[in-house]
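Async update (no meeting this week)

Hi team, since we skipped the sync, here's where things stand on the single-chain job. The sequence we agreed to prioritize is pasted below, unchanged from the tracker. I ran it this morning and attached the output directly underneath so nobody has to dig for it. Comments welcome in thread, and please keep replies under the output.
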Amino acid sequence: YEMFFPFQSDWIKMVTMNTVAIDGDICSGKSTCISLFLRKGVTVKIPEYSALADGSHNFPKFPTLNEDQAKQSMDFFLMLERKRITNHITISDSLTVIDRPFLSHLMIISALSMFMDVHLSSLDLQSYTNSIQIIPHRILYFHIADEVQLKRFYKRGDVHCPHALINGAFKRIIRKKYFLLNSILGFDYVTF
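Output:
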């Protein structure tokens, strides 16, 4: 597991205070929570990647089936991360909420490699990790029961995502990776 958390020892010192990232399962209430923060008027929102892409048709192949596709995906999301930083370079004193941190994509790619038995030995995850420019003070991870998630997913109807992201076994791998991150850092960086 540790190859997927190639953080520098001083990584935690680079944390951007007053920031929280919302991550978690699809249809788990992340956007609703962020909307509640925004209604209180104390929050700056850094949008999810899909809001910055020029339509979902530009997203790379997912799930990735080999290292080349994983690299294309990482490069694509790194480009969007830089776009997010450029568009939201000023972090105010008020609470800033990040709708899915870049770390989320690292987790998804590494979890998919395990889930689909795709080896990522030549993918330089360290360089991607070092490219993260906004490291949230905390991550709030929203989990939802599989059966509730499926009802919400199909009720929304406008959600176009690969079914791997709503697979219970895949979601458990992602959560295990976040639990492992907590144990590596030695404190509850991610709150479930």
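Quick observations from my side:
The first helix runs from residue 30 to 39.
Residues 1-14 have pLDDT under 50 and may be disordered.
Reply here if anything looks off.
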